[in-house]
Amino acid sequence: MTALDDLARPAGDDDAVGGVPARLVAAPASTEEAAALVAAARGLTVVVRGAGTKIGWGRPPRALDLIVDTRRLAGVVEHAAGDLITVVRAGTPLGDLDLGHQLLALDGPAGATVGGTVAANTSGPRRLHYGTARDLLIGITVVRPDGRITKSGGKVVKNVAGYDLGKLYTGSYGTLGLITECVFRLHPQPQSQVYVRAQAPAADAAKVRTARVAPAAIEVDSRSGELAVLVEGTADGARDRAGTVAELLGGDIAETPPPWWGADPWEPGGIGMKLSVPLSGVPDLVAAGAAIRGSAGTGVLYAAAADAAGVDALRERCTRLGGHAIVLTAPEHLIDGLDVWGPVPGLDLMRRVKDQFDPEHRFAPGRFAGGI
Length: 372
Fold this sequence. Notes:
GO terms for molecular function: catalytic activity; FAD binding. Keywords: FAD, Flavoprotein. The chain is α+β, with helices and mostly antiparallel strands. It folds into three domains: 1-189 and 343-367, Uridine Diphospho-n-acetylenolpyruvylglucosamine Reductase, domain 3 (2-Layer Sandwich), CATH 3.30.465.10; 192-254, Alpha-Beta Plaits, CATH 3.30.70; 271-335, Alpha-Beta Plaits, CATH 3.30.70. 24% of the residues lie in helices and 27% in strands. The protein is built from twelve helices and 21 strands. It has helices at 3-7, 31-40, 114-120, 127-130, 133-136, 165-169, 205-210, 235-249, 282-286, 308-320, 332-335, 347-357, and strands spanning 8-10, 16-17, 20-21, 24-26, 46-49, 66-69, 76-80, 85-89, 102-103, 137-143, 149-153, 178-185, 187-188, 192-199, 217-221, 226-233, 252-254, 271-276, 291-295, 300-305, 324-329. The chain has an eight-stranded antiparallel β-sheet. A five-stranded antiparallel β-sheet has the order 7-8-12-10-11. Strand 10 and strand 11 (149-153) form a beta hairpin. It is globular, with a radius of gyration of 21 Å. The model has no long low-confidence stretch (mean pLDDT 94).
């Protein structure tokens, strides 16, 4: 009897990805069990699922035999507070991490898992100060499509030995293997978080960026016309710097963020896009007339599009501003008619990487750019 026989169950009505139903679902509880499962599933097409908060992102898989559910791969393996690092299993929800006076500075949807956050390279408002998953990840354990366990990086921040496979797996949408553990760099938990909310144009974000206030996030929302800034630090220091920001923007200091902070601007089941432009292009993009929310400090924003024409219009505007746009999610009946990824530089190289890591193209087939 194989690990597939031991762990797999028939898929239920909810076990589908992008409208494509699975045949089987299996939930390994360790890296070794996951490796045995993947090795036993040779010949089957596989999609990895965590909490399912981003399971509809990307294109539907061309085929789906097995969903590997990571939610039993949960918990903190190690927390070295003195070294500011933690080792976390991939199925651990971000919201469940309790690291005392330290934090893993990744913002994600409610319930999002560590592995899903890395696989989709998602980030939230605080990416301005702390960076993205790709920046905070310093080590990774992955089960490759052939069942072999691969480790990269280590448990020190300055680790330059060998090729950094963590960067490769981050944002790969599960097309190169199953992430089982991640090693992250941590930051001290700030004593205080203070928000400044202002009815101000996106262009005013430049005032905050050039002032000596070290904002953790600068967010803009096109629907409310608000600009909001997060300032962190000691209680007195954060309050003083927030006062400077409030004076610059003509805004008010608040203890809590605005309701749109970090929220998707699209309705459930709608078309959601990720837009990236140079900072100088943010005001122009926000004025596009769509529902847009995101970082006026990094130029990474999120938008709702009404239809395929709306997708094309936002992509054209991003391109004209020197950026790019992708469709994160769309209704099943519309996804086939949308150009999800747009122009993708380096696509030939990406295909060669896929061929090397997953020669049979079993993992998340067709979900990534160029049909990878």
